[in-house]
Amino acid sequence: MVEYIDYKLVHGKMPKRPEDSNKATFGKILNIAGSKNYIGAAYLSSMSGYKIGAGMVTVAAPDIIVPILASKMTEPTFIYLKSNKDGAIAADNTIPDLQNYNVVSVGCGLTNCEDTKHFVFNLLNQLNTVQKVVIDADGINILANHKGEISLKNSIITPHPIELSRLLNVSVDEILNNREKYARITSQTYECITVLKGKESLVTDGQKIYINKSGSSALAKAGSGDVLTGIISGLLAQHLSALDSAIIGTYLHGLAGDIASYDLTKYSVMASDIITYLPFAISEILSEE
Question: Per the structure, how many domains does the chain have?
C-alpha cells in the first residue's frame, strides 16, 4: 500500500507543547557526529534537533573540533571524545550514562576510518534495543561492514541510494529502478523504519510505503541530510512514534526547503537555510484549516 506525505497527512500532528513543562518534557538527544573535515555535519544535525523542539541536545564529537563547535552554537552541551591522528573519533572512547538520553543519533560526518568503525560498532551494541536510535551517513556505512551483527529494532535509518547499495549489496541502479521494493526490504530485514532519500523520498515500516511530496532541487546541497537527521531525532525525542517522526520530519525538511527557495531561489538555498526556515514550515502544518 502506498500513501503520499502531504499537508493533509501531517496537518496537526506536531508534538504537543504543554505549558506545564521543562526541557526534559521535550526530550534529550545525544548526537554523535563530526570529525576534523566534517565539522559542519555536527553543527547542522545538532541545531536542527533544537529548532524542531527538542529540550536538550548533547554533542559527542572528537575533542579537536569541540572548541570550534562551541564557538558556533551556545545551546548544546558537549562530550569530548578522544581524536585519532586523522581528527576522527578514536576506537577506545566510551560514552557513559547512555540511558539518560531519549534519542541517540549517530553518523553525521563521522568518516569511515577503522577507529571510528570500531567505536560505532561497540556503541550500537551497547544501546538497548528499546532505545530510540537514528542512524545516518557514516553510521550506515559502518553498519554495512557488520551486516546481521547489530540489532536495528526500533531504529530509524536515513540512507541515500549509494549508502543503501552498500547495506544491501545491490547496485545503485537497481535500487533507483526499484526504490519501493528495496526500501521495504531494508525495513523488513532490519526491523527498522527506513527513509530512502532522494526525489520524493520514501518512508516505510516494511509494510506501507509513504512518498514525500515536499522538497525540490533546492535540497540537493551538502549538509541537507544532516539537517534531516536532526529534525527526525528532535521529533522522536518529543515522543512521536518512529514512523510518525520519519514521516513528519521528511515532510517538514522538504517544506522548509521549498519555503526558503521562494525567497532565495533553488540555486541559493544552503543546508543552514533549511534550519532557518523550519519555523515557517512548522507554522504551516500547525495552521487551522
Answer: 1
Tell how strand 193-196 and strand 202-204 pair up: antiparallel
Phi, psi of 204 (to 5 degrees): -150, 150
Is residue 216 in some structural domain? yes
Q: Which residues span the domain enclosing 219?
A: 2-12+107-286
**Which pLDDT tens digit goes with each residue over 139-181?**
999 999 888 788 888 899 999 999 999 999 999 999 999 999 9
CA distances from 5 to 10, 232, 249, 278 (A): 7, 15, 11, 17
| Structural domain includes residue 188 | yes
CATH assignment at residue 169? 3.40.1190.20
The three three-digit cell numbers of residue 150, written as one number: 547489530
Residue at 61 is within a domain: no
Rounded to 5 degrees, φ, ψ at 50 are -65, -45
Q: What is the DSSP string of 142-156?
A: HHGGGTTTS--TTEE
Which tens digit of pLDDT belongs to each residue from 19-38?
999 999 999 999 999 999 99
Digit-coded pLDDT (tens) for 117-149: 999 999 998 886 657 999 999 999 999 988 878
- Which of 210, 225, 237 lies closest to 50, judged by CA? 237
Q: Write out pLDDT tens, residues 66-100.
A: 999 999 999 999 999 999 999 999 999 999 899 99
On whether residue 277 sits in a domain, the answer given is: yes
159/189 Cα distance (integer angstroms): 15
pLDDT at 287 over 90: no
Predicted structure pTM score = 0.97
- One-letter amino acid at 74 equals T
Give one DSSP letter per residue of 89-149, joined into a string. Answer: B-TT---S-GGG-SEEEE-TT----HHHHHHHHHHHHHS-TTSEEEE-THHHHHHGGGTTT
Q: What are the residues whose beta carbons fall under 8 Å from the beta carbon of 49, sequence distance 6 or more?
A: 29, 31, 57, 105, 230, 231, 233, 234, 237
Strand partners, 70: none
